[in-house]
Amino acid sequence: MKKTVYNFLKSDLVDGFSIGFCALLGSLIVLGICICFFTFIHYTQEENENIRQDLDRIGKQVIHLLDMFVVNMILKSTSLRSLLITTGGFNKKSFDIFLANTEVMENEESLFLFSKYVNHTDRSNFEKEYFPIICWDVDIREFRVCPEKNFYTPAIYYFDKYQIGKTNLYGFDPSFNFYQSVVNAMELNEITVETTISTYTNEQFLVFFVPIFNETSNTFIGFSLGLLGIQSLVTKVKEELITDESINVFVLTNQSDIIYEDPKFNFTKRHHIFDNDAFQERMMFSSVLKVRDKEMEIILVTTFEFENEQKSFLPTIVSIVCAIIVCLSLFYLIDQKKKRNMINQIITEKNHLIHKILPEEISNKLESGEDVIAERSNNASVFFLDIAGFTRFSSIHTPEQVIQVLIKIFNSLDLLCSKHNIEKIKTIGDAYMATSGLSPNSGDIKENTEKMLDFALDVLQNIPNEFSFHLGLRVRVGIHCGPVISGVISGYSKPHFDVWGDSVNIASRMESTGLPGQIHVSDRVYRLTKENYDYYEEPDTIQVKGKGKMKTWYLLGKLENNGFSLRENYIQLRKEISEQNDKVNPLKNSASSIKGSPHYHVVSPHYLDSDTEMDKQKPKNNVLKPILELNAKRAINEKMSLLDDDS
Q1: Number of H helices, E strands in the chain
Q2: DSSP string of 387-410?
Q3: The CATH number of domain 51-310, selected from 3.30.1660.10, 3.30.450.350, 3.40.50.620, 3.10.180.10
Q4: Secondary structure class of 470 (helix, strand, coil)
Q5: Residues 362-386, mean pLDDT to the nearest whole number
Q6: What is the pLDDT of residues 213-260, one digit of tens each?
């Protein structure tokens, strides 16, 4: 299933572009679109946040200015009281001069009154001295004579520079319409605030009641009142802060009644603002302005023109630039990924080739840049294998057939090397060389030698099955253990890892002087492993060029293993050799006529087993010596071709 999907993705959708690549390209495009979209959203939200901050700033400034004007109005009303107290009595001329020079702001719709406290019993005297006491009738919307009450606060003076009242306000009693606020101011001696509607303009006003008490008797003597038009106040603030109609301003009482709005609207309650469809997508600012004991809510709503002026093409430009950068970056990464994959493939193939040619530790050192010259291994075990009868086999078969047989054999040997953790060194012709114990982390010489013997027995057990159909082919194995030198030998090209030394030469001699289908080992190998391995009871003594006589042994199997054994084959081979010896007169000293391995010719005497000890243990019956001295007689060569055919 996975292979099918992989092949499908590898198939070309268009010329040079596979389905997988096109899918990746499509994913990158979608990713780029998503990045552009979220970038646009991010900067749009950032712009909206800036607009909201601007609205909050304007709203706070509006609240600040309104609060400042209200405070000024309160201060002026309080100053009017102070003037009365300072002068010791009411003087209309002084009041006119004072108020004319202390306006809250230019063109402001403001009105100031001075109301005197009149008891019920003193009403008639007051009306005789001044004017009748009148009040505003809300139902008929006009002034009339004030009905009987406990007390009255008729206006004896008012300052209406801009004629807001449009009528004579002398005798006007505000306590009739604002009784509770007047009572609170009298009882608490605090300034109170009320809202009212102008009689003629229908404009909402703020009314400030400033109580006046006699300092000597501490009795209430009247009010100084200030009226401030909310519409004119907000209009003035808008002129100061908002240059056009880009922001809508609403002023509401704490009962959610709208007391100011732009003329184009006709709202009466707070929910009308929030239910309006035109305001659903607009930004709003809401805050509370506290005027003494009253609270007014100030709501600012932006317009589309205001928000549009604050916006720019930055989100679009940034998203486009981001998309271009993302696409270029992705294409660059794709290109770099292709190059990196190509480089990694080359490096992997190179490392794989190096690991095939060189041992793992040597190849790792070369990969890390270390110089590997040579290393000495004192616990090594050396293995040689040669195919007996291969020369005659190659002469009667085609080169292709010969190569196929070698590949089959050597592949089997490579698999067995991996199985037993044996290091393959090289092949030369039909010869195969391997070692164990080259690594400094490997075990002692006995452990490495036993590992090599297990490998050799496994070879003799499995290799014949690989080419049993090839008549006349059998392998010859030689093993020795001891110190070796290993390293990479190279000139300007083709580095070659090799192992050399006395132990290598002796192992080669063990192979070249051995019998086909048998494992020929040195006396040192025998002494290290005889407790666990089965050897033939009688050793052989062979003549080695440069060494003299050496005692050798034939490995037949493992002692604890009741399975594979070479003993029966070895005894049968010895019997055949004895029968041939009875028929011929072997030539003496003909062992030197047997050609050795063509791969190693120089033997150093530094790491040989003692010849003296070997001479002390001479075999009683050397049956192989006549075989090594066979002449070139035709009959003997035909029978013994398996022994010296590759020589």
Answers
A1: 20, 24
A2: EETHHHHHHSS-HHHHHHHHHHHH
A3: 3.30.450.350
A4: coil
A5: 80
A6: 887 778 888 888 888 888 888 888 888 887 667 888 999 888 888 888
The alpha carbon of 25 is separated from its chain's Cα centroid by a whole number of angstroms, namely: 22
Instruction: Tell which residue, 260, 268, 264, has the closest CA to residue 236.
Output: 260
Tally Cβ neighbours within 10 Å of residue 468.
9
DSSP class per residue in 474-494:
EEEEEEEEEEEEEEEE-SSS-
Residues of the chain with CATH 3.30.70.1230: 373-644
* Residues 168 and 128 sit within 8 Å (Cβ to Cβ): no
Provide CB contacts within 8 A for 563, sequence distance 6+. Answer: none
First-last CA distance in the chain = 55
The CATH code of domain 373-644 reads 3.30.70.1230
For the CA atoms of 98, 104, 107, 112, the dihedral, rounded to the nearest 10 degrees, stands at: -60
Nearest to 574 by CA among 607, 525, 621: 621
- CA-nearest of 302, 307, 296 to 248 is 302
The residue assigned the tokens 């109609």 is 245
SS (H, E, C) 203-257: CEEEEEEEEEECCCCCCEEEEEEEEEEHHHHHHHHHHHHCCCCCEEEEEEECCCE
Per the CB < 8 A criterion, the answer to whether 249 and 234 are in contact is yes
At residue 5, the pLDDT reads: 66
Angle at 76 between CA 229 and CA 236, to 5 degrees: 35
**Which of 336-349 are b and which e, b meaning 16 or more Cβ less than 10 Å from the residue's Cβ?**
eeeeeeeeeeeeee
Mean pLDDT of 79-102: 74
Please give the Cα distance from 198 to 115 (Å, whole number): 19
Q: Where in the chain is the domain with CATH 3.30.450.350?
A: 51-310
Supply φ then ψ for residue 325, to 5 degrees: -65, -45
Give dist(CA 470, CA 251) in Å, integer. Answer: 112
B/e letters for 161-199, b = 16+ CB within 10 Å, e = fewer, are eeebbeeebbbbbbbbbbeebbebbbeeeebbbbbeebe
Residue 540 to residue 520: CA distance in whole angstroms? 10
* Average pLDDT for the chain: 77
Binning pLDDT at 50, 70 and 90, where does residue 612 land? very low
| Cβ within 8 Å of residue 107, ≥6 positions away | 162, 232, 236
In the prediction, which pLDDT does 12 show?
A: 55
> Is the model's pLDDT at 564 over the cut of 80?
yes
The rounded distance, in Å, linking the Cα atoms of 446 and 216 is: 127
E strand or H helix at 134: strand 134-137
What b/e string do you get for 386-403 counting C-beta neighbours within 10 Å, with b at 16 or more?
bbbbbeebbeeeeeeebe
